[in-house]
Design goal:
There is one protein chain. With about 160 residues, this protein is of the alpha+beta class. The protein folds into two domains: about 90 residues, TATA-Binding Protein (2-Layer Sandwich), CATH 3.30.310; about 50 residues. The protein contains five helices and five strands, in the order βαββββαααα. A hairpin with a 2-residue loop joins strand 4 and strand 5. Helix 3 packs antiparallel against helix 4.
């Protein structure tokens, strides 16, 4: 996705403290902004399920910077590295099913019904894997907006 910039009031340290307070102030079983800050690097996401983080949802990954005497939070919404690494694991069963169904073998003659069923299963598994990642790449309606609103509220207190 394209780069996003959030203006922050005050210094980098003040902006960081406000966002950390927003993260720490969210009760463990409530929806809201969550994530972590390491140095000037930030990883933020919106937790709407109380007990776990959905790794396949848009995540804001960015850095605090000083630009023209003002503090900004620059970054992008993207999938975490861990989630991107899972794509081959999600696709592996689909590939195995499709290869077994479509590649001729001399081991044992397979019935056409079995091969068709295996090809359909492989196709469904591949669609599910790509659908899961497509949901992340394009996001669920409102995901990016929810994170953006939470970041703006924490970075620009009124």
């Amino acid at each position: 996705m394209k780069p996003v910039t959030f203006p922050c009031s005050g210094s980098v340290a003040e902006a960081r403290a406000r966002i950390e307070a927003a993260i720490d102030g969210r009760p463990w079983n409530a929806a809201g902004l969550d994530g972590w800050i390491r140095g000037d690097g930030v990883v933020l996401y919106y937790r709407d399920a109380a007990k776990y983080r959905a790794i396949f949802r848009p995540t804001f990954i960015g850095r605090f910077r000083e630009r023209d005497g003002k503090t900004v939070l620059d970054g992008r919404f993207r999938m975490t590295l861990f989630a991107r690494a899972l794509l081959p694991i999600w696709l592996a069963p689909a590939i195995v099913c499709l290869v077994v169904a479509l590649v001729p073998t001399q081991l044992q003659p397979q019935s056409p019904g079995f091969r068709i069923a295996l090809a359909l299963l492989g196709g469904v598994l591949a669609l599910m894997a790509f659908g899961r990642f497509a949901l992340e790449w394009w996001g669920r309606p409102g995901d990016v907006d929810a994170i953006s609103q939470a970041i703006r509220a924490a970075a620009q207190p009124h």
